[in-house]
Amino acid sequence: MINKFAIAGMTAGLLGPAAGGRAQHADIANSVSIGHAVVGPLEYHVEFYSDVSTERDANWVGTFDTWFTYQVNKSIVLDAGVYIRVTAAADDWHPWIRMTWRH
User: Domain residues of the chain, as ranges?
Assistant: First the structure.
């Protein structure tokens, strides 16, 4: 963390069924995100996410993601945010909420 900023990057390979379900194809996902403490256990994050498929005629998916994270206690984290379309292949917007319990 730099001055209460968190900077993260991710690269992942995903394997899944192709359209029609007969063959497999790989996706390469990448993201870069920046988060900042707002007040107390509340943080705000922004991210650019990209997913490129090896499947024939698949379009590149890109989203701008933004969310809040609230650390309830050492075991429970609440998140809420929205993924916003950058490329035509992505959903227009995708709101979400999540609770994580760590033990």
Answer: 5-97
